[in-house]
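Model: You mentioned two targets. I'll fold them one after the other.
Researcher: Yes, keep them separate.
Model: Target one:
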Amino acid sequence: MSQQDVTRNSPRCRNCVCEYNRLEEARFWSRILQEHALFIKLGLPAGERELREEAQALIEIFMELRRRLQRVSRLEGQLLEDLIRAVRAIIEYKAKVLRNLLQCAAEPGSNYPLLLDHIRREAVRFLNLLQRPVPQDPLLMLLEQEVFWLRIMKEHIEFIIHLLDPSERELINQAEEFRRTFSRLLETARDLQSMADTKPKSFNTVLRFTQDVINNTRALRDFKGAAFELARLCQLLSIVSNPLLLDHVRREADKFLNELDVLLPEVRRCTSIPGQNEVVPFN
């Protein structure tokens, strides 16, 4: 990958030190957060008027931020401040809705507590990136991303399972197999991340593991895409509030794959043992 290719991607890597392109991240995550507000609103009971109005206000805030983000070439100044303020607001909103459920102070509607925590964690990660975009070693960054995203992918599968009608047995069986696979991958990623704390000069097992992650995430991405098409065509029995939800989780899988596509070559170039970085599949 050339330097020009790398700078067009997010995260951006140079000399084995990686950092995010915050503008591209902002464009991606501002849409994701706008949709989070929509999904929460759709899941709230009709009687929760105040919370529904707050969700709508957040939708409009992020719609406007998205328009502004498309008109600039750098994320800085007032736009950055406004974006940080909006992300903090939606984090607190998600936390408030979750607290209400945990304290049995509100009707649950169709917003699972884990779903609220899931989307809160995504927003917190984005806020941290905006506030502390500190470059990292590519190996540590790769494993950190894998731990984060594999948990997100696993939870996506769990949500899909609980949204499908019980009669969708074939799709549920496929999703259950994905759940088992991504649970194993997440556990392994956490083990490898812990081992990497010893700062090894090379760690070729991570290369093999990451290729396995890529292959399985591509398969999951395609499963989500197929489910979205079925929902869009009214061929899916489920309680999915909006087909957009399935496209939303598909785009997050693509985001995970994009990050791996950028970081894996850097890890291979910078931390693998020369002549031993060929990935051998394990069957």
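Model: Target two:
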Amino acid sequence: MKKLTQKVCLTLLSPALVTFAVIGTVTVSQAQTSALRIVERDTATNTTTNLQVWAGRASVIDFTQTGEVVTYIRLADPSKVVFNTDAELKTNQARMIFVQPIQPLRFPGATTTPITNLFVKTLDRQGVERLYTFNIVHRSGRPTNNGITISSATPNRQLNLPVANAPTLSLADIERGLELAIRRGYTTANDPVVSKIREFIALTRNGTNVTRAAERTNLSMSVIISLAKLGQSEIPLSTQPI
């Protein structure tokens, strides 16, 4: 095992900038990647969702939480990624799609694009059909997630923070701020603080009181607020919140 001595703190410098430093000693056996980024079903059907992929790794789109089965998939540009499902589409049992980058291929007469789109048609238990659109975004460096899970829950709910004059924040703001902090290099995906923040989000989404969730994850409210402000500071692209 590899012992890393780090100083960990989070200081809000401006609404658009969070700086991470490291405090304390932690033991890490290997770099860890967060599980799945949760996207609410109505958001996913009304906007185009970014699915991030990394070389040598597969990213999943998971519909198990909604009970939907995948009935049709259309990849616009198949020259850079391939996909498969956890069951054949004709069986009406497929609930996961795995997307993986490949070495670029050339197809006579076909056009290519750096960011292609993936269409997914699903069917739920009530017979309702839905169409989802995803942008396949190629990333370099250390992965920040293993894909997306589509949820019928609402991850965007507002938080009642036990802080005087606290701004109106949501779980989506915190998630977006965390993704931005990792992407901009303010912290690393395997930092123990990142795991704590993800645990806080999961606890709160499942109904745990904000104060209790912060206590259980040993997070200060200033860290949570700073990340949420970072998430609010960058207006998402029209296609999808990060």
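Researcher: Noted. Anything on target two?
Model: The chain has five helices and 15 strands.
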